[in-house]
Specification:
alpha+beta, five-stranded mixed β-sheet, 15 helices, 11 strands
Length: 414
């Protein structure tokens, strides 16, 4: 049982406190309810750009990292399509440093053309290295707009194009900041050997003076139901042909989500899973194969992907994948097979929560989803999934009319 104490400041900042006396380290997680899905379609990549800008100096603190390192702390951040998340760990006696740093950059960044230009160059270089100059790196630049026609999940967190980052102005980034980065659009979670009253006092001292801001109302277009297969071919300088099949699936809070997640584990969580055993080991059609969910807050994707051997045709690959899908649809999985992936989920989930930092991050995320206390219900939700539920979900989700397929062809196989 992970216990959490909640408090909300007058300016709207939600505060979560979890006491863990097994460690002398305190973890502070600040989640902003803004991700790539909140961007203007003509100005994408801004949420990720801000992840970098937030380390480029705030209004009163020119360099973020130096004070953290001086007090023995570590920090990092990540952005995805739904959220932007900043976190740090440091010795308990130095915890006020974290409040000082995070409140100052929530108050305002040290907006300057020099800082913006530096971070733009960093992001453009990252775009080039990870998405354009890496084998299979541009998959999501093609697969997302193939699968989504309306919802802003149609572009990856890095953005649609480097041109959007190159053209970003100081006015653009200031507008994005003040429209999304605010106490009334954030969740602060502190975990460790802390006293709740002390944390509330520190939060009031450092974050309390920051005024509420007018947050842009989120009114995202709903993705229409896909009613026919979509297919796209690209050719790249990569060693193997690859296939990516994306099926639309439910949102993170949907009651079907645990079953969808477990279905992906049944197919490809480890070498004993179905896809590896049958398509890699027995039929030797793929060098590797995988199934996973994107896990987005809004309706996400169920992905089946694999790299083909040079002797395998796309037709053979798709027939083999479809045979495994049909097997899931026609026959309930055995209780033993389902319990195996349920046990693995529970083991991984429980182990993850031994980390005070993971608890701080996860509690903030569950609060965003509705209630931090729901973290304690997660294992039971997965335990409640039945073989019949998996079968129903497979029939509903893994349909060709609901699938977008990317054929990622190697030009080395000619």
């Amino acid at each position: 049982m992970i216990e959490v104490i909640k408090h909300t400041l007058p300016n709207g900042l939600k505060i979560l406190i979890h006491q863990d006396f097994s460690t002398p380290i305190a973890s502070i997680n600040l989640l902003y309810n803004v991700g790539a899905k909140d961007e203007n379609p003509g100005k994408t990549g801004f949420a990720h750009l801000f992840e970098h800008l937030m380390f480029g100096g705030s209004v009163n603190i020119p360099v973020y990292d130096e004070p953290v390192e001086r007090v023995g702390g570590e920090n990092n951040a990540f952005t995805n399509n739904d959220i932007t998340n900043y976190y740090l760990t440091l010795p308990l006696e130095n915890i006020e440093t974290a409040f000082w740093l995070e409140s100052d950059r929530m108050l305002s960044l040290a907006f300057s053309k020099k800082s913006l230009d530096v971070q733009k160059n960093v992001v453009i270089e990252e775009f080039n290295q990870r998405y354009l100059n890496q084998p299979y790196g541009d998959v999501w630049l093609h697969l997302r707009p193939l699968a989504y026609t309306k919802h802003p999940y149609m572009w990856p967190t890095i953005g649609k194009s480097t041109d959007h980052i190159k053209s970003a102005t100081l006015a653009d980034v200031k507008d994005f900041f003040y429209s999304h980065y605010a106490p009334n659009n954030a969740i602060l979670c502190v975990a460790g050997p802390v006293e709740p009253s002390t944390i509330i006092d520190l939060a009031s001292k450092w974050f309390g003076p920051i005024e509420k801001r007018n947050i842009v109302e989120r009114n995202l277009p709903k993705e229409p139901q896909q009613t026919s297969p979509r297919k796209l071919e690209v050719e790249r300088d990569v060693p193997f042909n690859a296939i990516y099949k994306a099926y639309h699936t439910c949102s993170r809070n949907h009651t079907d989500f645990p079953a969808i997640d477990l279905m992906s584990d049944l197919l490809s969580n480890g070498k004993s899973a179905r896809l590896y055993q049958r398509l890699v080991k027995e039929k030797q059609l793929f060098s590797n194969v995988n199934a996973y969910i994107t896990g987005d807050i809004d309706e996400g994707l169920f992905i089946i992907t694999g790299q083909l051997y040079p002797t395998t045709t796309y037709e053979q690959a798709e027939i083999a994948i479809n045979e495994e899908i049909v097997a899931l649809q026609n026959e309930p999985v055995s209780v033993y097979e389902l319990e195996k992936v349920q046990n693995k989920f529970e083991s991984n989930f429980t182990f993850e929560e031994t980390s005070v930092l993971n608890k701080a991050m996860n509690l903030a995320f569950y609060e965003l989803l509705g209630d931090a206390n729901n973290i304690n219900l997660e294992v039971q939700k997965y335990r409640s999934v039945t073989p019949e539920h998996i079968q129903t979900i497979a029939r509903k989700t893994l349909k060709e009319d609901n699938c977008s397929t990317l054929y990622y062809k190697s030009n080395q196989n000619k």
